[in-house]
Amino acid sequence: MSSVIWHVTMSLDGFIAGRDDSMDWVVAQWSDGGGNTRDVEVQRSAVADEVLQNAGAILGGRRWYDVAVRKFDGYKGVYGGQWAGPVFVLTHHPPGADHHPAITFLSGGLSEAVATATSAASGKSVIVFGANLAVQCLRAGLLDEIVVHLVPVLLGDGIRLIDVLDFGPVSLERTLVATSGQVTDLRFAVRRSD
Predict the structure, then answer these.
(1) Which of 78, 41, 38, 42 is nearest to 60 (CA)?
(2) Which residues touch 53 (CB under 8 Å, ≥6 apart)?
């Protein structure tokens, strides 16, 4: 059965992207002072590898898509170029025809988008990208798990994991704690209130 997973890397102070949506901080501590981070060898996370291997589709929001295209090679940059499956983007304003053919833009409701991605995943997991979309999935009871790679850095500014005022408590159950070098891998199941 497909799980819907929010898969994210986060700084110790709760940011999932730095200023101007930067992600170089993820590997900057192992680089030559942050100037050459694309070719840095870091210890791979077995948890991240497992999430990727068990993924069948990606569901992102429009802001995530725009940042991915602008800064990270769009579809070719998903999971550092390791992704080869379908990507769905939930948006009320799809872009023109100039996009990768593996990307499908959905303009319906959230439940419908999750169902479409789940169907395309063919029994594998749906990975949610984008903080806003993930919060919407949490609120709607559509998210099953959160996987966080906690990086030992304090950013002080950027995109927060959750940055909404009226977000209520969500009970989670920690299912895994592991380490990959200096990174701490955390898995949480979202508890359902029945």
Answers:
(1) 78
(2) none
